[in-house]
Amino acid sequence: MAVKKHSSLDKVLGRLDQLDEPNLHNLVQRLARERAMLEAVFNTLQEGVLVIDADGVIEYANEAAARLIGLKEPAAGETLWRFVPGLRDSLGGAGGASPLVTREFELAYPSPRLVRLYMVPFAEGESGPRRAIILSDITAERKSTAELIENEKISSILLLAAGVAHELGNPLNSLTIHLQLIDRKLRKLKASKETRSLEDSIKICRDEVTRLDGIIKNFLEAIRPRPPDLGEVYLPGLIEEVLHFQSRELADRGITVKGEMPDGTPVIMADRDQLKQVFFNLIKNAMEAMQPGGRLSLKLRADEDSVYVALADTGSGIKAEDLAKLFQPYHTTKISGHGLGLMIVQRIVRDHGGHVGIESKEGVGTVVTLQFPQKHRRVRMLAGG
């Protein structure tokens, strides 16, 4: 739809040389009001609006544009190329004849953000065509899109992992049944040193099958997208349970455990089974990172709002380039790893209103710190306080 011109103003401007001083004064006031109104309109826009000449000199910038590129008033004499390095080259020079240009680029100043640029020549200036530019901050849009894609990817991976874990249950059930049959037949045989040895071996096999079944059960419960079933949890007691469950493997690997878990540690609101999976995964990772003779340290502390658990190992550490990828699905530094353990840990801790932090140094070891809100803080969070 075409915009109607102010015909009365055009007529006045057409006979400007015929105006007397009072009419000229009125005209100046009217033009000032028109300019102020246009300035107010442009400054209400969330998009940045710029006008540059053929050399990239900024002739006009609204408030949003000034914020986006870190432009200080006044704009006179500043070139757009200084605020957006590389833009001039990508446009083929200041005097390029492109009727329309659309670009997306990153700005590091005044803060990191992704910007979409729309530029079109609109009027001839002294040195060539002026360009009108619209800048849109698409950082949040791109971030939400990336998060959506990542969430869909994780959901697909978890669905696949759940299917695989479920299928593993069938052979485990078969093993349990056949071990029971073997055990019954052994009991009918005459007791001897050999039969007692076989009974011991069968018991070990049955215990291992039970342990594997428990791992799968905990894994399935952890990856299913269900909210935590909150109840009061005393973390020192829960960690002791997990360590007891893993005590045989810790002993087999020659790993010692040192714990600082004060009796007065405040309770938190959490899902016991999900938190067991968290600590099982982290302790398992620590064990696999250490050589025989390694040491695992667990330290609990609390402030007014949170409870912190630090798990430190004396393992091989993590390369700096791998630290940023630790929580990505299927990213693993282990030959036989599946890359889901830390992703599950992060999801469960986040669902509990907590945070996961990791510090590591190659050849020294890794420290994983978990932060959970205390019971009174969790209640306020649930109530929206």
TrEMBL record:
Keyword Kinase part of the UniProt annotation: yes
Gene3D superfamilies: 1.10.287.130, Histidine kinase-like ATPase, C-terminal domain, PAS domain
Annotated ranges, domain Histidine kinase: 163-376
E.C. designation(s): 2.7.13.3
Record flagged with keyword ATP-binding: yes
Species for this entry: Lacunisphaera limnophila
Reaction(s) the record says it catalyses: ATP + protein L-histidine = ADP + protein N-phospho-L-histidine
SUPFAM superfamilies: ATPase domain of HSP90 chaperone/DNA topoisomerase II/histidine kinase, Homodimeric domain of signal transducing histidine kinase, PYP-like sensor domain (PAS domain)
Protein name, UniProt field: histidine kinase
